[in-house]
Amino acid sequence: MPSNERAPCRWGTIGILQAGLVGLAACGGGGAGGGAGGGGGGSAVGLGLALQADPASFESSEYRRSGALERVGASSAYAAGGDGSGRTIAVIDTGVDVDHPDLQPAILGASRDIVGGRGALRDGGGHGTRVAGLAVARRDGSGIHGAAHQARLLAIRADAPNSCPAACTFDQRDLADATDYAVAQGADILNYSLGSANSLSAAYAAAMADATAAGRLLVLAAGNEGAAKPSYPGLFAASSSARGRALVVGSVNASDKISAFSNRAGSARARYLVAPGENLRTTADGGGTATASGTSFATPTVSGAAAVLWDAAPHLAAEQVARLLLDTARDLGAPGVDSVYGHGLLDLEAAIRPQGAVVVPTGASVADGGRAIGRSGLVASAGFGRGLESAEPLIVLDGYDRAYEVRLGDMVTPSKGPEPVGLWLQRRARTTERAVLAEGGLRVEADSDPEGALRSLRIEADLSSATRLSFAGAEAAGGPSGHDWRRPFAATGGGRELTLGYAFADGWRFDAGVVDGIAGGNSDGAAGFMEGRAGDDTTIAGALTRTSADGGFVSLRLGERREAEGPFGSAGRGALALGEARTDHATLHVERPLGPDTTLLATAGLGWARLEGARDGLVADAGDFLATSFALGLRHEGLFSTGDALALTVAQPLRAENAKVDLDLPVARTIDGRILRRRHSFDAGSGGREIDLEATYGMALDAHREVELGLLVRRHPDHDDRAPAEFAAAVRYLHRF
Known about the structure:
This protein has 9 helices and 39 strands. Helix 3 packs parallel to helix 6 and helix 4 packs parallel to helix 5. By secondary structure, the protein is mostly beta strands. The longest helix has 18 residues. The N and C termini lie far apart (about 90 Å).
C-alpha cells in the first residue's frame, strides 16, 4: 500500500475556542466507552492457561509497525484467543476514511455524522482515521493493524462545522449527542481522543454519566498540555459519575518515560494509565499510513486492549475490564500508583493471565465458588500406573470468574518407585546386625545398619507358655530379602505395631494386632503389599502362621486398613479429594525348603478398597478398587563355596487391577455464569504391568568382608507401558571393623 505521509502534529496549537468547544489539541486527546459485558447466554467462553497459539506467530511486521502493540504485549492476548470479535468501539472524532482498506471492513453501517445538516462521515481533518486505525485496523498482512483487529468500528463524526482541518474543535452538545447515539447503537467502548477543556457542560457530563450507568466503558485522553493533571473530558474518569467504568490515558515515549506533552495523572491517578503515544504508525486519511504523536493516539490502544479482554471474557462488566487494565499495568515511576504515571503502562500480557484466587468450580454456577487450584491435586501411588495422567481438559476460574483451561494430568503427581540400584542397596543395608539385648520371659531385639543407626526395635513378653505380647517399631523395608517374613505384619511395611499372639500345637500360631503410622511406601512390592504415609493410616489385622520342623513357613494375613486421603498410599486433596479409604487385604507368604541348600520364597497380596466420606470436588463416583502384588524367589546357598548364596526373584509391585473413577469435570462457563460439565470415566489401573527380575550373588571373603553382585530389570517401570525397560547392575562391598 503506498505511503501517505503526514508530518507529526505540533503540540499545543489547538485548544478551547469558546466555553462550549473541545479541541483535539494538536497531539492529543481520546477515549473509549464500553458495553454491558454480555447478557445471559448459553455460549461457552474461556481462555487457555496454556495459550491456544504461540504469541510469536502474531508478531509480524504488520504487528510491529505501529510501535504500540509489541510494547504492550498484545500478542499474548491474541494467543489466548482474544482479538476484539463481537465488541464495538465507538470513535467519537472527526470522522473516518470510509474507503481505507484497513478500516472499511470494520466500519458499521450505523456510523454517522452527528452534526445536523452536514451528513458527511468522511474524515474532516485526518485525526479520526489515525485514531481508528490504532484501535481496529484489520490484520491483513499490509500496513498496520489495531489492538483489536477484529472489533467493529462505530465512527461518529462530531467536529464543529468548518473547524477542520485547521483547528478541529468540538461543541460539547454535539459530543453529548454523539455519546447518546453510541450507547443507543450498542457500542461497548467509547473512545474520546480529544481534550483541553477546563470544564464539562451539563449535557455532556450527563451523557457520559448515562453511558456508564448503561454499562459502557469510556476511555478518554489525558490531554497534551504537559499539565500535572488531565484536562476535561479526561478528568471525568475520576468522578463518581464514572462508576469505575472510565479510564484516562496518558502518553509515554519509546523509553517508557512520560511524554513531555502528556498531562500527568494528578488527582485522577486512581483511573489513569499510560500507553505508547509518540511517533506511532497508523492509518492515514486517503490511504496508506501516517505518523502521529499525542495522548489522542495512546488512547485507542487502550480502547482496543479493552475490546480484546472483553472478547476473551464476555461476561465481564465494564468496571471489571477497567480494573483489570489498571491492576495489571506495569508500574513506572515511583513505586505504586503515583501522580505521574498513575497505575503505569498498559500490559495486555499480564491482563490476560489469571488474576486473584484461582479455583476449580465445584458447583452449578460461578457463584457457588470452588476449591483453590493451589490446594487441589492428587498424588497417585505407583500402583495406579499412569491411568490418572489424563489429558482431559477442565476449566479453572480466576478472581474475575474468567475460565482458563487446564489438563487433568496437570493436577496429578505420580509417585514413582525408587530407582532400582538405590532400592537394592537400601534394602541390603537394612538386612544388617541384630542384637539380642534381653532373653527369657522378656525379649528385646534391635536391628541396626553398618553405621550403627537403629532400624527397628522389638520387645516381646511371654504372658504364658502359649501367649506372647509384642511391640515393634521399624522403618519400612522392601523385597523378599529385605523383610523378616516371620513378623506377623511385616507385609504392611514399617511403623508401629502392637500384637497379641497365641501358639497352638504343631507349630501353629495366631497373632492379632494394630499397625499405625505406616512409613514409606511400597518400594518394590515384593513383600510390602500396602503403601502408606506416616501418621494417617491404621491397619487392623490378624495372621495365622505355621512353622514346620524342616524350617518351612506359611502365613495368611487378613486385615482392614484405613487411609485418610485415598487408597493404596494415594492422597487426594481439594477438588480431587477422594475421602477416606477402607481396604480389606489378604497376604499369603510361603517359605519352603526344597533341599538342604535351596529355599522357595513366595508371597501374594490382594486388596479391596472402597472410598468413604463426603466429597465436594470433582470425584462423582468410584467403585471398589482391586489391587494385587506378588513375588516368587529361589535362594540357593553353597553354590561355589561355603557361605555364598545365589537368589533369583520375579515380582510384581502393587498394581490396581480395577479402579473405576467417574469425574464430573467443569469444561466451560456460560456468559450468564452457568458451569457446563462433562462426565469423564476412566480406569485408574489401566496401562502397563511392572515385572521386576532380580539376580543376586553374594559371598563372604573372610570374617570381616563380604561382596554381593546384583542384576535388576524392570519391565514397564511404575506400571507405565510407555516407559522403556530399566536395567541396572550393582556391586556392594562390606567391610566390618
